[in-house]
Amino acid sequence: MILDARRAALLVAANTALAPFAIDAYLPAMPALAEAVGESIHHTELSISLFLLGLPSGN
């Protein structure tokens, strides 16, 4: 599948626009997520750091 410039720009814009929503949904659920996977809240917070470090590579 060949991406034209317009479609590629749309995909980049969607990725950029949806990333803040992912963080906003994830942050309130962190205590429940830490309990569900049996890890400390500190390890769960590390996943946010990794997400934020990986975000620029997707853009």
Automatic annotation (TrEMBL):
Record-linked Gene3D superfamilies: Multidrug resistance protein D
Superkingdom of the organism of origin: Bacteria
Protein name (database record): Bicyclomycin/multidrug efflux system
